[in-house]
Design brief:
155 residues, alpha+beta, 25% strand
């Protein structure tokens, strides 16, 4: 069953053109659009990222991806590359404080997907397991014991 779920995740990633086809919202920075625990379904198709789109981006110095809205785009005169400024809907300031020191914009290469849908609150299980290491070990123990001692009635 776990293998099937992993295969479905990878298949959706190929269809959606992203290595990360789904993410769990971990904070309230995008409320009221998204709430903590929502699972966001992503894609990476289409033209350039535009102002107003909600994107998921990953910065090298941060462990987890960030889900925020594009509030401004800019094309650099020097080389024609596009850069993006983001902000959480529920935040008072833009994300420049999250970007690496001295970086004022993110690049489209740092965007791992655009939000195309959500599944409300389904990600809370992931949040609870991540935030409670003891619970994680209990679940692993139960699954392990079930695999060890669980048998079909036909055997």
């Amino acid at each position: 069953m776990i293998f099937s779920a992993a295969m479905m995740y990878r298949t959706w990633g190929m269809v959606a053109n992203t290595d990360c086809p789904a993410v769990v919202v971990l904070s309230g920075s995008m409320e009221p659009a998204f709430h903590r625990g929502d699972v966001l379904v992503l894609h990476n198709h289409g033209d350039q990222v535009e102002t107003g789109e909600i994107v998921v981006f990953k910065l090298e110095h941060l462990e987890i991806p960030i889900v925020h809205r594009v509030i401004r785009t800019h094309t650099k005169a020097k080389d024609g590359s596009r850069v993006i400024l983001t902000k959480g809907d529920n935040n008072h300031v833009d994300d420049r404080g999250l970007y690496p020191q001295g970086q004022l914009w993110i690049t489209e290469n740092e965007v791992i997907g655009r939000v195309m849908g959500l599944i409300p609150y389904v990600g809370y299980a992931s949040i609870i397991i991540t935030e409670s290491p003891f619970l994680k070990y209990v679940i692993f123990a139960i699954v392990g014991l079930s695999a060890l001692f669980g048998r079909d009635k036909d055997e």
